[in-house]
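Table S2 (continued). Query chain:
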Amino acid sequence: MTDLKKIPLDALHRAAKARMVPFAGYEMPVQYAGIKAEHHAVREAVGLFDVSHMGELFIEGPSALAELDRLITNDLTKLAIGKALYACVTREDGGILDDILVYRLEDTRYLVICNAGNRDKIVAHFRAQLRESAFDDASDRYCLFALQGPKALDTLKALGADDLEELAPFAIRELNLAGAKTLTARTGYTGEDGFEVMVENAHAEAVWRALVEAGEAHGLALAGLGARDTLRLEAALRLYGNDLSEETNPLEAGLGFAVKLNAGDFIGKEALAAIKEAGLARKLVGFEMVGRGIARSGYPVLVDGEERGVVTSGSPSPTLNKNIGLCYLPHELAEIGRTIEIAIRDKKIDAKLVETPFYKRAR
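Corresponding output:
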């Protein structure tokens, strides 16, 4: 682990007895008290994640809208100031370079949050394509914390944050927390209500400690990547490197809502239009295990005894008390209710295709 980067609050997490593991080039906390306990805390109260490995990229200038819009599959021209949208960055052939969030901070200033494992690739891609706009990879200067769960709002309000009920999902605003200026958005990766707080490294520990203290009365738990994975899978949120890659396209991954083929031009648009016209060859679908066994990424998926796909994500669901997963199957075989088999070591275990998301919070 000596070649791995450390996130700014590494020592604080170790003092909190976090189990640290390699992830996307960093040493990251995978769990504190335990994945199941942290998972339930987010579903029932509030959890706090340090996701400072993520990339933060600023794009600014009179040409920022036009140049950035060409790099993403969604329609940036419809994005209001103070709001965010989800999009993919695709190759000319429609393969996914990354899935990202884009925030419009000001009229000509944008923030992109990209995946840590794709940061270098996306930075190089953006630098090559953004010929007229100012581009700043600020990832090493900021921490990013995710406060997630039904008590996340109460936790922030305990720090004196006013009018947060009016901050709509996918909205962002400047917020003063623990004496520090933050960019706080009502976004997350858990299927729950919550906020993501971006703060400069110099103020990160003060903000983290303030969030922990404010959350004590609301049952806050420190949460790691293990719970983050089970939470996002229950909500059927895609994970790059598992469900998404350069060999997958947004349409077969079920991300067509973030692909606007009727809007402006973008890299990969022609290929995706052709894929849509021809009809999808395969589709990402959800399944739950019928027999005893946990499907893990990479396990073969069989239909009528023949291997037809592979598990991309799989784990126990602490909320539903079932074993669930995602896999790609030929489009004609991806019908809800179909019985499939997962090859788990030397056994073939029954499963069935089900609707996703597996879990959806009550509104």
